[in-house]
Amino acid sequence: MKIAKSFVLALALILAAAQVFAGGQKAGGQSGSSGGSAPVTWWLSLNANVSANYANLGDSPFGKGLAERTGSAITFQHPPASGAAEQFNLLVADGNLPDLMEYNWMGYPGGPEKPTPVGV
């Protein structure tokens, strides 16, 4: 049951990211802007299956394909496997949040609505 919830959450995040990235596409798959777009930052723990072969999700076929299909530069940020919860708390406390965050928000007090960056 918990694995199914995690899978659905991951799928929802990927679909949401795809919709955001696809917003700048013209017909034929070409980017809507002539210049390079600002890189998108995506914070997530690196899955053990991926980390066995790649140091960063951006080096994997998934990361390369996502960047190619969306026309956006994606910077993946991975916390250490043993300290993901601590790094997440530090990131939220800092207020300088990445564009996308993949985390078990139900374990965070207040849920995903709680961490509102200062000045927003």
Mean pLDDT: 77
Fraction of residues in H or I helices: 25-40%
Strand content: 5-15%
Q: What global shape is seen?
A: globular
Q: Please compute the radius of gyration using only Cα atoms.
A: 15 Å
Largest sheet: 3 strands, parallel
**Secondary-structure element string:** HEHHEHE
Number of strands: 3
Alpha-carbon distance between the termini?
36 Å
Helices and strands: which structural class? alpha/beta
Q: Give the strand order of the largest sheet, numbering strands 1, 2, ... along the chain.
A: 2-1-3
Sequence stretches where pLDDT stays below 50 over 5 or more residues:
24-34
Task: Give the helix tally.
Answer: 4
Structure description:
With 120 residues, the protein is α/β, with parallel strands linked by helices. It is built from four helices and three strands. The protein has a three-stranded parallel β-sheet, with helices on one face. The termini are far apart. About 9% of the residues have low confidence.
Topology:
Blueprint: H1 2-22, E1 40-44, H2 48-51, H3 61-70, E2 74-77, H4 84-94, E3 100-102
Parallel strand pairs: 1-2, 1-3
Task: Give a quick precis of the structure.
The chain is of the alpha/beta class and 120 residues long.
Features:
120 residues, alpha/beta, 3-stranded parallel β-sheet, 4 helices, 3 strands, globular
